[in-house]
Specification:
single chain; Rossmann fold; 4-stranded parallel β-sheet
Length: 150
């Protein structure tokens, strides 16, 4: 029986997208290339998009261009997660405002959550299995390891 390749379903925290659009190099930018090549499925919700647009002045492009780029790269922007799902994660969070990430990851059956936020997100790295909570560099390394095993 031949299994078809299923690309990882990766929820992007806004920090990674900011980094990808602010730098021409680095792991965040490399993930955007993998997204364009369809080697990963990139997922963001309306909550993440709202955060990006709220802080669009941090990115060297206009607000409309940023929204266009996000839609072009991620395709469908998912609805915000249900509050009942968000509330399940608030007790784990130092910043309750990040609980939406974990609720979205669960609702969308994500394999990975990629973030640059060490203090509020990455510290939960091994606590919410089977979800892999990783930095962009860790995700790239994991994808390379998966490719060498095939």
């Amino acid at each position: 029986m031949n299994k078809r390749f299923q690309p990882p379903r990766v929820l992007f925290n806004a920090s990674v997208i900011f980094s990808a659009y602010c730098s021409k190099k680095g792991a965040s930018r490399a993930l955007m290339l993998l997204l364009k090549q369809k080697r990963i499925v990139g997922i963001i919700s309306e909550t993440i998009l709202d955060e990006l647009l709220k802080h669009a002045d941090k990115i060297p492009m206009g607000r409309e261009q940023l929204q266009h780029e996000i839609v072009r790269n991620f395709g469908n922007i998912l609805p915000a997660p249900e509050e009942k799902n968000v509330s399940q994660y608030k007790h784990l969070m130092m910043d309750h405002g990040d609980a939406h990430l974990f609720a979205t990851a669960k609702e969308q059956h994500c394999t990975h959550l990629v973030s640059l936020d060490k203090k509020h997100v990455l510290f939960l790295k091994n606590k919410l299995k089977p979800l892999h909570i990783v930095s962009p560099a860790e995700l790239i390394l994991a994808l390379k390891d998966d490719n060498t095993k095939k």
